[in-house]
Amino acid sequence: MNQQVLSAISFGITSGTITALGMLVGLDSATSDRFVIVAGLVVMAVADGLADACGWHLAEESEMKGGKSKFSQKEIWVTTIFTFLSVCGFILTFTIPLLLFQQLGTGILVAIAWGMLLLVIFNFYIAKMKKESPMKIILEHILIAMFVIIVSYWIGDSLAKLIG
């Protein structure tokens, strides 16, 4: 796999998963409304995917080596496109359990489990590729995701109490 594609997909899985988990838990604690949560995830998938892709595009354009761009225009655009597709695509997968399960709470729990599974599998793959112990990298990303979930829940709950 091309390094640009691997970098973009790595970013998309991690950023998309952690962002989606925060958004769905935060919106659920604020509204408990399936439509609001699904609509929020779909809008965020596109907006965050485009924003992240533009960010990666600019970051790669600004990387210099010996006074010249480190990456070719083709490499930059491959990263840009795959970043958008992976961020957007992975975020959209979180809408599936919300639409499949009649009980919203069940859909939320399945979506959280899906996110944790994605992080475990992907970080295991990266650790093995780097010939490192998978436990450290997996634990690190699971703890970050749990922190985001807790903070997002608290923000949503607080907003529901203040405004709702």
Task: Give a brief outline of the structure.
The protein is mostly helical and 164 residues long.
How does this model look, in words?
The structure is a single chain. With 164 residues, the protein is mainly alpha-helical. The chain has one domain. The chain has 6 helices and 2 strands; from the N terminus they run H-H-E-E-H-H-H-H. The protein has helices at residues 3-31, 34-62, 73-93, 95-100, 104-129, 134-163, and strands spanning 64-65, 68-69. The protein has a two-stranded antiparallel ribbon with strand order 1-2. Helix 1 (3-31) runs parallel beside helix 6. The N and C termini lie far apart (48 Å).
The total of helices stands at 6
Percent strand equals under 5%
Overall spatial form: globular
Separation of termini?
Answer: 48 Å
Helix coverage percent of residues? over 70%
Which features would summarize this protein structure in a list?
two-stranded antiparallel ribbon, 164 residues, mainly alpha
Topology readout:
Elements: H1 3-31, H2 34-62, E1 64-65, E2 68-69, H3 73-93, H4 95-100, H5 104-129, H6 134-163
Antiparallel strand pairs: 1-2
